[in-house]
């Protein structure tokens, strides 16, 4: 951390504002290594502890009300304690939460998803995005009889061994055997020439290409025009399956990015918002591929089990959340994202800064880089100290945000709160400006 007066002032203010979080961190670290059981939750000087949430806000043990623009890293779309989701869970859980059998709840949510997503004829339920992408890759390998998988640099597909090793900044991949990644290939996102070349050269051994339609954790980097269509065409021509990982991107359209961009993959993973705030992963695809799991007409179906697969309480929460996440609601929340982007770009310009803000729908990511971020390598050049200080500065201003500059909106946030958020962002940029003028002059216009 810099010793610059701007940095010292922001950190000192955080220490002063969140003493109860410090106490809880010191207590928790005795039993949970690092004091946070999710790596993303930890930051210095200590992570914030939330007491409870309601609607678009969370409340700390110090008694502060914070506007929530993390929304559980995208898992919440209707904010905290949505009454329809709560009512569905309460009514359902009184009848039992899990039976280890097929249920009406599984039918309702599966039908809703298949009705909406162009690439879904049939689905299987899992418990996380990591499980969903792991089984998507296993499915592709089982169908094709081939082992290799091609991914995009900066694409995040969970934490199972095959996909966890990547060039993403600051991700520690110790403990992953070399053999687990021997069949993984990687090309830059937004490089259709490299992708096409890799598919053609490896087609005899390549089971699938797995990719996010836009990089999510990699910085909300959007696909350049024609990228998805070109990869769809070359995979189809070469007998390689295409997997879209829409766990993060699904919220931007009623049928996900494949509906938005008009490119339909062979297999798709979704999750996050689909669970209504509870843990879920979904693997789906065309019937010809998903029938590899079918016990009725497949002699030896691909094995897929799990104690909590299709957990009835999750099915109830997910159906309630998705039923009210209709086209009009999506249009409304996407308009809020556009409103945020417009105000933020004006603030960036007014402060004489040359930094980037990538936005699609209700997702936005700021990058302290002085040129457009169109590849993962561009995102990696963003100035980490400024991200750290922006995060703490916004927490000091009662904005609960994600350290890497990612903002995720909920349907509960109002236009007035959006304008307040833009105002707090402007205050934070002004607070950081003396440091930028002294140390990061390349970010000035």
From TrEMBL:
GO MF annotation list: glutamate-1-semialdehyde 2,1-aminomutase activity; pyridoxal phosphate binding; transaminase activity
The entry's keywords: Isomerase, Pyridoxal phosphate
Xref: InterPro entries: Aminotrans_3, PyrdxlP-dep_Trfase, PyrdxlP-dep_Trfase_major, PyrdxlP-dep_Trfase_small
Keyword Isomerase recorded: yes
EC number: 5.4.3.8
Pfam family, one: Aminotran_3
Cofactor or coenzyme needed: pyridoxal 5'-phosphate
Enzyme class: isomerase
Domain of life: Bacteria
Protein family per UniProt: Belongs to the class-III pyridoxal-phosphate-dependent aminotransferase family.
Stated name of the protein: Glutamate-1-semialdehyde 2,1-aminomutase HemL
């Amino acid at each position: 951390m810099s010793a610059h007066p701007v940095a010292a002032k922001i950190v000192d203010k955080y220490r002063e504002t969140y003493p109860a979080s410090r106490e809880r961190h010191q207590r928790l670290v005795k039993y949970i290594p690092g004091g946070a059981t999710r790596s993303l939750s930890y930051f210095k000087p200590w992570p914030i502890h939330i007491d409870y949430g309601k609607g678009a806000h969370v409340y700390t043990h110090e008694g502060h009300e914070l506007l929530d623009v993390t929304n559980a890293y995208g898992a919440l779309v209707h904010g905290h304690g949505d009454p329809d989701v709560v009512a569905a869970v309460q009514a359902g859980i009184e009848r039992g939460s899990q039976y280890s059998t097929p249920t009406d709840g599984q039918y309702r949510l599966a039908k809703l998803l298949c009705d909406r997503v162009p690439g879904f004829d049939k689905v299987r339920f899992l418990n996380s995005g990591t499980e969903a992408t792991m089984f998507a890759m296993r499915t592709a390998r089982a169908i094709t009889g081939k082992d290799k998988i091609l991914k995009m640099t900066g694409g995040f597909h969970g934490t199972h061994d095959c996909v966890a090793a990547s060039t993403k900044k600051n991700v520690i991949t110790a403990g992953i055997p070399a053999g687990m990644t021997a069949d993984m290939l990687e090309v830059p996102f937004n490089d259709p020439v490299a992708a096409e070349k890799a598919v053609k050269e490896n087609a005899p051994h390549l089971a699938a290409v797995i990719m996010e339609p836009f990089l999510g954790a990699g910085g909300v980097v959007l696909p350049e025009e024609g990228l998805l269509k070109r990869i769809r065409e070359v995979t189809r021509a070469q007998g390689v399956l295409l997997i879209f990982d829409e766990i993060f991107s699904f919220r931007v359209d009623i049928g996900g990015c494949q509906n938005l961009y008009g490119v339909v993959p062979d297999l798709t993973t979704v999750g996050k918002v689909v669970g209504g705030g509870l843990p879920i992963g979904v693997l789906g695809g065309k019937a010809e591929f998903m029938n590899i799991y079918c016990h009725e007409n497949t002699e030896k179906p691909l094995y897929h089990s799990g104690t909590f697969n299709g957990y009835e309480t999750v099915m109830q929460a997910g159906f309630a959340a998705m039923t009210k996440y209709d086209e009009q609601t999506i249009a409304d929340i996407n308009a809020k994202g556009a409103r945020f982007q417009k105000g933020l770009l004006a603030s960036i310009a007014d402060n004489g800064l040359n930094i980037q803000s990538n936005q699609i729908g209700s997702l936005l990511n700021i990058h302290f880089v002085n040129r457009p971020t169109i590849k993962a390598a561009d995102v990696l050049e963003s100035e980490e100290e400024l991200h750290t200080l922006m995060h703490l500065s916004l927490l000091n201003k009662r904005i609960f945000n994600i350290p890497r500059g990612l903002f995720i909106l909920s349907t509960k946030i109002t236009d007035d709160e959006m304008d307040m958020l833009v105002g707090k962002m402007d205050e934070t940029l002004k607070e950081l400006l003396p440091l930028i003028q002294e140390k990061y002059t390349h970010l000035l216009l």
